[in-house]
Amino acid sequence: MTTITSVDVVDVRFPTSLSADGSDAMNKDADYSAAYVVLRTDEPGLAGHGFTFTIGRGNDICVLAAQHRAAPLVGRSVEQIVGDLGGIYRELKTDSQLRWLGPEKGVEHLAMAAVMNAVWDLAARRAGKPLWRLLAEMSPEELVDVADLKYLSDVLTRDEAVGMLEEMAPTRAARIAELESSGYPCYTTSAGWLGYSDEKLRRLCQEAVDAGYKHIKLKVGGDLEDDIRRLGIAREVIGWDANLMIDANQVWDVPEAIEWVGRLAEFKPLWIEEPTSPDDVLGHAAIREAVAPIGVATGEHGMNRVLFKQMFQAGAIDFCQLDSARLASINEILAVYLMAKKFGVPVCPHAGGVGLCELVQHLSVFDYVAVSGSLEGRVTEFVDHLHEHFVDPCIVEDGAYRLPDQPGYSAEMHEASIAEYAYPNGSYWASVAVPA
Amino acid sequence: MTTITSVDVVDVRFPTSLSADGSDAMNKDADYSAAYVVLRTDEPGLAGHGFTFTIGRGNDICVLAAQHRAAPLVGRSVEQIVGDLGGIYRELKTDSQLRWLGPEKGVEHLAMAAVMNAVWDLAARRAGKPLWRLLAEMSPEELVDVADLKYLSDVLTRDEAVGMLEEMAPTRAARIAELESSGYPCYTTSAGWLGYSDEKLRRLCQEAVDAGYKHIKLKVGGDLEDDIRRLGIAREVIGWDANLMIDANQVWDVPEAIEWVGRLAEFKPLWIEEPTSPDDVLGHAAIREAVAPIGVATGEHGMNRVLFKQMFQAGAIDFCQLDSARLASINEILAVYLMAKKFGVPVCPHAGGVGLCELVQHLSVFDYVAVSGSLEGRVTEFVDHLHEHFVDPCIVEDGAYRLPDQPGYSAEMHEASIAEYAYPNGSYWASVAVPA
Description:
The structure is a homodimer. By secondary structure, chain A is α/β, with parallel strands linked by helices. Chain A folds into two domains: 4-151, 2-Layer Sandwich (Enolase-like, domain 1), CATH 3.30.390.10; 169-416, TIM Barrel (Alpha-Beta Barrel). Chain A has helices at 59-70, 78-83, 85-93, 96-99, 106-127, 131-136, 140-146, 158-168, 172-182, 198-210, 224-238, 254-264, 281-291, 305-313, 329-343, 356-371, 415-421, 427-431; strands spanning 4-13, 33-41, 47-54, 184-192, 215-219, 243-247, 271-273, 295-298, 319-320, 380-382, 396-397, 400-401. In chain A, helix 13 links the parallel strand 7 (271-273) and strand 8.
């Protein structure tokens, strides 16, 4: 028997605010950070790695929450945990005292994501498979057993979920072969951060086109005249056949979103992302109706499956951008993919930050192979930052993610990176003045 | 000039799980707790006290979050802060790095509630008035200046808000006089916790009737046959003229809620409270349509004003049970009261826990005096637990809250209570075995 012997949770922060990487209308000085969980075992070489993503201050709060949430795992049998990945999820999530602090949202849910991401990484490593393949080899019943369908039965029953997965099962192998050849399509956000100069924007757009991207995303919502000028530059460089997406990062009220997006319609954006509060289902529905044919996208702050259920029910979004470190790992993400399939909404996961690209490549591949069976309208975010800190970094070629082939969820960071960027005592932070 | 010299945040926990007080279908072993904030100043005798309420484990996470959130207050001028209570709220809430952890939900929002509750307590103490009176003496413009209307302009403009308050302003004094004579009506939840025996239920229902209550609430949702038997006992004791409310604490999916409540309809409950996920606006709307004329109530886990906006827009609730320690204090609560007024939904605040009754009495009085001007359909929760720990405890007589008359928000705890129940080093916890 293999046992989980301890849980380490580390506060890791990268000083990205120094370069304006990641700057947008809401988040001007992000220090991309991770509350990083390692489940250690008594089997040499076997550990589970997972994390949630934050943008700096408060990462320590997520660390503390993850320590609480993971505590019941210590001393448990690895075989038992990976043999019932739905059971351990439900056990951790139903701690009634911790539940009060959400439920299923905010810091507690970020911590749950970090811990369960580590559990799924452990399961895939133990199976000797990349996570997408572990999932793609599970039967429809096994997948539905691990999915969290609580509060969803008004739109999705267990039988419906099994039925949808069964329909795709016979053709899984062909889709795996297809993706092994072509990769999974992605788009880049690296060009369009709000803090970049026009010259840098122009150069990065050209580099993106040269690298084979057919989708490019720009941040908007700071100043209307700036947005008009920057979108003009982008269209000049990428032309009108490529897709241009815009992202307001929640800065507008509903009427303001409708007005502002209307002023940018001449640039024919594919979608407006996060036009308003991420909690506002009915607001997104109103915006979608007003700005069509421009699509509405949201989800990186989509707090849980109940929010996505309503986004689908209300016809509020054209693109679902679930987040791999905000939803409670595979158990909840699977439920959102199943609902998206039923409602016919493409899932284009949020990525970037620290390590989110490493995670979402597994999700997108699994979705195509086992759930949606479609690439139409689907393109996964890619941001070219901080991959050097990961042991098994994602690889993007010709605007597509190559399929990961190492065991696990690609979540492990280099020990040297942790030693340098652990906060506040890593070698980088010890060398600069950290405010008390 | 008076200065905030330091912020203390204390983890206070009461071992209420020992007596099954507070037990319901979701929360079986609550230890009522507070992340308790004290803003100390250099004026002798002047401090601001506030808290958020939790049910045990994880209270330390809220303490850490409150420490972060309150840090910018240290060294500030009290005059400046109380002179611009909207400004300090916006400054604290827009920390973009902390915002990522919500936004405006979960642990971070509970912490914001604790800190801003202390700020409002400080403002009222400095003015020498109970908080309800401080608010009731502010002009419509002043009130709207402190209210957080962000993300609400699709349902409520600033001008509409001022207009609604102006309409009630000339008659405020008469309503104050009325409440000073009669008190504000309340109901009791003390009778119906799920862990109580039938005999205790019967006795407590009789005591509630004898004490003048016209509304009694029971917990349901554990076992249908138990619920039918317990509601039968309650109706036997209180008769059919008194109001009986039922509370499921989020245990059901939507179809299950409709089915179960249908089976309890013979007992003619006034409302079903928290039938499903607190995030499910469309689910509550569906339940409301199906169970009418039984009303739907929710809000103690209503995470922020954007959720309440949608509850009102969707016609999802008959009673709004906002929580004084989950919403971000007066700034956000005021916005919810204004929307409730516009949509004609009575606000019946959630209370109980630790100190929530002390807070909500101020809110209900202010609502009647300055916002709604109506008592119709309004009754505020009262639970007779833990008031002995407060310096200015609420007083309930004949089923009504007497108006508080001490300066502040009635949020201050006795130092002896803190010394005993601070976790894990207070004298009570030091005397029992606390798990590591």
